[in-house]
Specification:
The chain has 252 residues and is α/β, with parallel strands linked by helices. The chain folds into two domains: 4-77, Ribosomal protein L30/S12 (60s Ribosomal Protein L30, Chain: A, 2-Layer Sandwich); 85-247, 3-Layer(aba) Sandwich (Alpha/beta knot), CATH 3.40.1280.10. The chain has helices spanning 9-18, 42-47, 59-65, 85-94, 110-122, 140-145, 161-170, 210-215, 233-247; strands at residues 4-7, 23-29, 51-55, 73-77, 100-105, 127-131, 155-158, 174-178, 186-187, 197-202, 218-221. Strand 6, helix 6 (140-145) and strand 7 form a beta-alpha-beta unit. Helix 5 packs parallel to helix 9 (233-247). The chain is elongated, with a radius of gyration of 20 Å.
Amino acid sequence: MKPELLYGFHAVREALRAGRRDCRVLWLLQPKGRGRPPHRLTDLARAQGVEVRTTPGGVFRGLQEAGVRHQGMALEVGPWRSSTLEEVLTGAADKGEPPLLLILDHVQDPRNVGAMLRICDACGAHGAICARRRAAPLSPAVSHASAGAMEHLPVVQVSNVRQAMDRLRDEGVWLGGLEGSTDDAVPIGKFDLDRPLALVVGGEGAGLSRVVRDSCDFLLRLAMHGQVASFNAASAVAIALYLARQSRSGAR
């Protein structure tokens, strides 16, 4: 399969640290003038048998034309691999913890997906689940937006989000949909989040799709105190996942 090109310091470093990808070549942009001081990622790459090359343009021309911030470094890697639901649930069990997951219902902006995956990692979620179609592909742009968290976090791509939710329910996981403002949603601060839990967030603008909303065991909302009607999706996910993590027994 065609290799991918991760770019930016954090995405490149975390891919090297995680060791989940087939890392092939670390490209460094050769500046004008003589020589180049040793880069702090060079030793990390070479310790893993990754070839290090410099170039005055090469792979960076395409990145520059695409308008991305590559910071003078790019990592040629093999394709990203989806985790499975079994792997995610086993990972939680191996830690002796009830599952804490995030389900993305057709979120389409790579920056939002990346931000949510970064939040999942920071809050100690065991994994994320996202749709394979009508959603942002799990691309180098998402890895960059996640500051490399995508390279560590188990992420499951599924063809049918509702079927994945049904499977989680069969495994004893509760499904809580995040809704901005609806009469049948419970304020999140009044709900017991200390349970096997998957939080479900909808796409930009449309929110949760009807079939996914109807598949949730309960709906949760964040109380608003200002003039603007809602948090953006990533902010809502950050608050909800942080509260869920803090509610767990022994959390500090």
